[in-house]
Amino acid sequence: MEAPASLVGQYLLAMPGIGDPRFERAVIAICAHDPNGALGIGVGRLVPRMGLHGLLEELDIDPGKAPDAPVHLGGPVEPQRGFVLHSPDWIGEETLRVGARWALTGTLDILRALADGSGPRRWVVALGYAGWGEGQLDDELNRHGWFTTPGDDTILFDRPAEQRWSAGFDSAGIDARLLATGAGRA
């Protein structure tokens, strides 16, 4: 199976038994994918005991109008760095457009906008990201470690994090409970 040319705006869903505990039942929204590599934000797990208000207070930003939403484990790379994956109705100077579906911002201006009520309509906050070097993600896809499914705003913005993995498979008509963790022998 050959990897698609670009996975931007799609989800990567970790297959059972992927072999890396950091990615068990992972749901990663792919924000950049080209011949040089890929970058995604994990949206399937939460940072324990951390909400947006606590994060804002650590950054000396008054939470203001922002709800105390959960903070996601965005990935194992640079876990101290924050990102907001959001609807494209708010764009800052350093916002990356993720196809026509989403936008990704990693600067303090979006956190200030969330706090004062002028930010995007829909969003998730994450710490860290998942990154792949040149050809690495394509190789992993060819080894069947990941399943891809089209990005879906309902899964991202309306489902609790712990339901996104199975919801991603459901959207492709697959019952995740029936997935095997290993291969058989013939």
Please, could you describe this protein's structure?
By secondary structure, this protein is of the alpha+beta class. It has one domain (10-178): VC0467-like. Helix content is 20%, strand content 33%. It has 5 helices and 10 strands. The chain has helices spanning 52-58, 108-116, 136-142, 153-158, 164-171, and strands at 10-14, 27-34, 37-42, 46-51, 70-73, 77-86, 96-98, 102-105, 123-132, 146-150. Strands 1, 2, 3, 4, 5, 6, 7, 8, 9 and 10 form a 10-stranded mixed β-sheet that branches. A hairpin with a 3-residue loop joins strand 7 (96-98) and strand 8. The chain is globular. The mean pLDDT is 91. Belongs to the UPF0301 (AlgH) family. InterPro entries: AlgH-like (IPR003774). It holds the Pfam family DUF179. This is UPF0301 protein FOY91_12735. It comes from Alterirhizorhabdus solaris.
The arrangement of helices and strands along the chain is: EEEEHEEEEHEHEHH
CATH level 4 superfamily: VC0467-like
Measured on Cα atoms, how large is the radius of gyration?
A: 17 Å
- How is the CATH topology named? VC0467-like
* Overall average residue pLDDT: 91
Based on the coordinates given, report the CATH architecture. 3-Layer(aba) Sandwich
CATH structural class: Alpha Beta
**Total count of helical runs of at least 4 residues:** 5
Number of strands: 10
> How would you sum up the global shape?
globular
Protein name: UPF0301 protein FOY91_12735
Organism: Alterirhizorhabdus solaris
Family: Belongs to the UPF0301 (AlgH) family.
